Amino acid sequence: MRLRPGAAGLLLGRVPTWEICDLQVPLRDLFPARARRLEDCLAQAESPRTAAAVLDGFAASLVHGYAPDPAVEHAVAALGRPRPVRLPILADEVGLSERQLRRRVTDAVGYGPKTLHGVLRFQRALAWVRSDDFALAEVALRAGYADQAHLTREVSRLAGLPPTRLAERGRRTQDA
């Protein structure tokens, strides 16, 4: 299940996202009472589409009472731009100290603002690389990297593959 950055609180409740960031946590650890029922429904699903509908229903059942943090939503939007605003300016925009904003973003997203910006930039670049509409140098510029070499280094560091190979793998997966 993919959620927008900052929406993990929908599933995690009071568990800070950074505590389980980059871990595979059994659903039973988060929802002991509801996990078995969800597992049974997923096991009975006749197709991936049906399973997705079951997961959608489960997530929708958690929405009641969930309210996203407006400061985090604003920060995610600002950090998602190719040229994000500097943290002191962003903190001032949302009426928080830098430390408070950093803590709230980390609690909601699992990463600090700088890492979140890098992940969002990576996702944006990967989408453009996979579209085949742009050369790597143009993707680097549009996504907010200094140059094509910077793009290649960062994508290789985050994904373990250079951008062109990662894009090929993604296209093969979509075609299958």
UniProtKB/TrEMBL annotation:
Entry keyword DNA-binding: yes
Domain HTH araC/xylS-type: 69-169
SUPFAM superfamilies: Homeodomain-like
Keyword field: DNA-binding, Transcription, Transcription regulation
Pfam families in alphabetical order: HTH_18 (PF12833)
Protein name as it appears in the record: Helix-turn-helix transcriptional regulator
Annotated organism of origin: Streptantibioticus rubrisoli
